[in-house]
Amino acid sequence: MSGRENFAGAVGAVMAMAGSAIGLGNIWRFPYMAGQNGGAAFIIIYLLCVVFLSLPIMLSETIIGRSSHSNAFGAMEKIAPGTGWKWMGLLTVISPLIILSFYSVVGGWSIGFAVKSLYPGFDNSVSSVFGEFSSSAWKPLICHTIFLLVTAVVVKAGIRNGIEKFNKYSLPLLFVLIVLIAVYSLSLPGSEEGVKYLVKPDFSQVTSKTVAYAMGQSFFSLSLGVGTILTYSSYIKKDTDILKASASTAAFDMLFALIAGFAVMPAVFAAGIEPGAGPGLIFETLPFIFVKMSAISPVLSHIVAVLFFLSIVIAALTSSISMYEVGTAYLVEEKHMSRNKAVAVIFAFTWILGILCSLSLGPLSGLKIAGLCVFDFCDVLTSNYLMTFGALLYVVFVGWKMKRQTVWEDFTNGGRQDINVKVFKPLYFLIRYVAPIVVILIFLSNLTL
Ligand code: TRP
User: Fold this and answer.
1) Strand-strand pairing, 368-369 and 372-373
2) Residues near ligand 1 with C-beta < 6 Å?
3) Is 333 within 8 Å of 37 (Cβ atoms)?
4) Amino acid 1: pLDDT
5) Residue having the nearest C-alpha atom to atom 8 of ligand 1
């Protein structure tokens, strides 16, 4: 194992994990969810879900990764040799590849729109631009290819020189961009309504559904259950405080979601548009807003549009890189491939599946799996089933399969981290009992959707 790379330090590790967590989920899902489900009331519930559910799950993944210093498959085999657990590990090597395939298509759209918004023609008939773009055959495929290639180049460069470096520069840039857009958005006349929509506490909106939504969102937003946090954690040094690292990751993710909310919602309300979620919000509604603004200052609207799509591209890249690394680490360590070859194999798989996802929104829309087009099938399969199932595997593995002593050693760095020694007991309780039950409930509620 002496040849295995690691992150240079705790800062690099947190940047990489936060890069994985911060993504489209923060920009298109969080603002809408908060607005729809009671504003500040939702945000408080969300915070509680992060602390009592998602953080224990995240720490479970971190402990498996860091204590084994192995990929998602090898970690299970190392900790529980000769058992079926490694096949469970293999499942979490495959799920991020499926997510990556359609994520890369969306990342491609963002590249396409960033380029499109450079042109004056962007202002015309915008409402139909997205549909035309995403359903046409060639343009999205070229953009998907570019997006995946950039991801591959970063992963190929390795842990320190590729992944850590890319996140270290792009994450601060991303924060600056989103703050600039938020400032601009808040300066638009009529933007106050958007702020109110986002934060006004309305506890009458809070039901058991709200709690389920908040859990699901915290799960998705922190990239849990698909081996990414596990794989990144396997590059964390032995003396890093993993509680601090995980809590900082969750805090950055939350902060970014809030700022993104202030970038998106005020503009939506200033333009007098009904807020919605999903790709529609960022690729249909927002371009429309930028057009409206162009009546005031065409140059400014172009600049804001380009910066906005650029920030989406960066946010998506830092997430896609983390998904790409899961499979790469597996092939290098288990199949003894060179890093270059592993990167090429992952590229081939996700490129082809991504092409199918992209075409399924246009020319191949007739091809259905379980009644869904390929794109939606991959999305539903991973977000509703594989992610929750993976999270369940991890908490059960740490809570019931791993030796308590091993978990304690890793969590407290051999008893050297005072605070961690104190919170170990309640945390272990959450991992062993609370998290599995809650995750099963979420899983069952997804089945009935
Ligand atoms: N957390 C990412 C976001 O907020 C999305 C995501 C879900 C993800 N699962 C993942 C990213 C797995 C990386 C790996 O957009």
Assistant:
1) antiparallel
2) 20-21, 23-26, 96, 99, 220-221, 223, 226, 228, 319, 322-323
3) no
4) 43
5) 223
Three-state DSSP class for residue 383: helix
Average pLDDT of adjacent 10-residue blocks, the chain of 449 residues = 80 96 90 86 93 96 96 96 94 96 94 84 61 82 97 97 96 94 88 89 85 86 96 95 96 95 88 73 75 73 86 95 98 97 98 96 88 90 90 97 96 91 96 95 78
Tokens matching residue 175: 């924060």
State the DSSP code for 121. G
**pLDDT per residue as tens digits for the range 245-289:** 999 999 999 999 999 999 988 888 887 877 776 667 778 777 777
| Distance (Å) from CA 125 to ligand 1 centroid | 32
For 442, counting Cβ atoms within 10 Å of its Cβ (0-12 exposed, 13-18 middle, 19+ buried), the class is buried
395, burial (CB in 10 Å: exposed 0-12, middle 13-18, buried 19+): buried
Residue 406: both structure tokens together: 């091993």
Q: Across the strands, what pairs with 373? A: 368
User: Collapsing DSSP states into helix, strand and coil, what is residue 58?
Assistant: helix
pTM above 0.85, yes or no: yes
User: Please, is 448 exposed, middle or buried when counting C-beta atoms within 10 Å of its C-beta (0-12, 13-18, 19+)?
Assistant: exposed
Q: Give the DSSP H or E segment for 173.
A: helix 165-187
